[in-house]
Amino acid sequence: MTERRPDPKSQASPAVRRMADRLDEILREIESSATLAAELLAKTGTERAAAVRTEVRFHGLKLCELLFTKSREAWFTNPAKSVELAELAVAISDRLDVDHYGMALVEDTRALAWAHLGNAYQVASDLRQAEEALDRAEEHHRHSDEDELTLAQILSFRASLRNAQGRFEEAGRLLDRALVIYREAKDRHLEGRTLIKKATALGYAGRFHQAARLVRRGLSRIDLLEEPRLLVMARHNLIWYLNESGQYEKARKELEETRGLYLALRDQINLVLLRWLEGRIALGLGRLDEAGPALREARDAFIERGIGFDAALVSLDLAAVYARRGEPGQVKRLAAEMLPIFESRDLHAEALAALAIFRQAAEAEEVTLDLLERMARYLQRARRNPELRFGEGE
Amino acid sequence: MPSETAPTREDLDRLAESLDHSIAKIFREWNIPEAEGEEIVGEVLVRLAYRWSRIHDPEGWLLQALSREAQSRSERSRKEQEDD
User: Fold this and answer.
1) Nearest to A145 among B32, B34, B68 (CB)
2) Does A146 contact chain B (CB < 8 Å)?
3) Cβ contacts of residue A268 below 8 Å, gap of 6+?
4) Which ranges of chain A would DSSP assign to H, the alpha helix?
5) Does A78 have pLDDT greater than 70?
6) What is the pLDDT of residue A4?
7) DSSP assignment, residue A4?
8) Does A13 touch chain B (CB under 8 A)?
9) What pLDDT was estimated at residue A334?
């Protein structure tokens, strides 16, 4: 006797019919989540925590998602706020109704909330908590239906952490795994985004030729309308890598083609980054008279905004201009100006110690281009790794 | 409500229609009874609806999710029979 084969229409179509009410419910949940988020965010921190603890209307999956999306938006503008929003998302994810959403979906949402908290910690330079949060994300992912896109997100955040820790090879391998998932999911934009991110890992590792190639591949895949900011960032990185690999003229031409995009974005920080890049390219081309004013302008803008690491890095470029001009007095003056400014900014103790070494070298008129390059490489790596010392793992 | 945030009933109807044959094949392969198959499809569609905004290939995602769920249930049921 043959086994009775299920009629496909008796499985998929009735299930869709029964979904009608549930779909309306999901749409209502999406619509109300923005209002609930606004209400929650208007409260003080203590009131917010109490509301999430006690009021069931705040225990929604879409509200949780909206909060970790907002946390994402705050990464570069307000890292502390980003952590706060992700913590709130985690608190809500802990209270999601398993009977209503099902265990797989709840665990998946918990995985994503923890993953976003992990990345928010990483951006806020708390690498230990970032690692722990990402471990929690993986644990929840294992208890969910193991959605591949969630795994790719966790891998991508873990790669950012490895970049911050200076473990660039490992970051590259994690991103390769994420890339396979995005390709299978036919998500060209996220594939492009991940290629650009992998290029960043290669750039940090000093592999500028490969990084430039990868950015170009990433650029051919991203959706400009979805993330115009990513386009400018990727083009900026590409020009940076070309310049770092000694292709100064090519970098200059690419910059001219990209200038309109920086201006169209109307983002002040991007305009400062543009000025910095112009200064570095001019420095590479030996046009020291152009490099000096551009770098000074960029440095002052970073100081004004309290962005200590970038201000310190531009100052080192400026020191290179003076050193190449054979002006040790200017280097000394710059070094003397730097330390008091950076002591009141976001530089950690190890970075300040490195700058003190630079000041001593300047005082003794012993600053070389090699020292400046080593110092710049160190500051790039130490940006999110407060425990890294100058001279360590060079 | 735009269909980027959540699927419409039409989106799901279209999916069910176009994947009927493949869904039936998955359940046959893992020996899933009809009623249980319907339950699985329902559960997986809810997950799809909640994740709709981040899924670029709903067909591929749905088949992969159904396949994984069918495999897991089939293995669980076999293990329960062995334990009995």
Assistant:
1) B68
2) yes
3) A301
4) 12-41, 45-54, 61-73, 79-94, 98-101, 103-123, 127-143, 148-164, 168-184, 188-204, 208-219, 228-244, 248-265, 268-284, 288-304, 308-325, 328-343, 349-363, 369-382
5) yes
6) 47
7) P
8) yes
9) 92
pTM (predicted TM-score): 0.84
- A7 to chain B, any CB pair closer than 8 A? The answer is yes
Q: What percent of chain A has pLDDT over 70?
A: 95
Nearest to A185 among B27, B33, B61 (CB): B61
In the block, residue with structure tokens 């890049």: A277
Length of chain B: 84
Instruction: Record the tokens describing residue A358, joined without a space.
Output: 């630079």
**Predicted local confidence at residue A344, as pLDDT:** 63
Residues of B in contact with A223 (CB under 8 A): none
**What would the mean pLDDT of B38-60 be, rounded to a whole number?**
90
**Nearest Cβ partner for B1 among A7, A12, A27:** A27
pLDDT in tens, A113-152: 999 999 999 988 788 899 999 999 999 999 998 899 999 9
Residue type (1 letter), A257: E
Question: Would you call A187 and B56 a contact, using CB atoms and an 8 Å cutoff?
Answer: yes
pLDDT given for residue A190 in this prediction: 95
Burial of residue B59, with CB atoms counted within 10 A of its CB: 0-12 exposed, 13-18 middle, 19 or more buried: middle
* % of chain A surpassing 90 pLDDT: 67
The answer to whether A23 contacts B6, with C-beta atoms less than 8 Å apart, is: yes
Helix (H) or strand (E) holding B62: helix B58-83
Q: How far is it, in rounded angstroms, from Cα A362 to Cα A299?
A: 19
- Residue A173 pLDDT level (bands cut at 50, 70, 90): very high
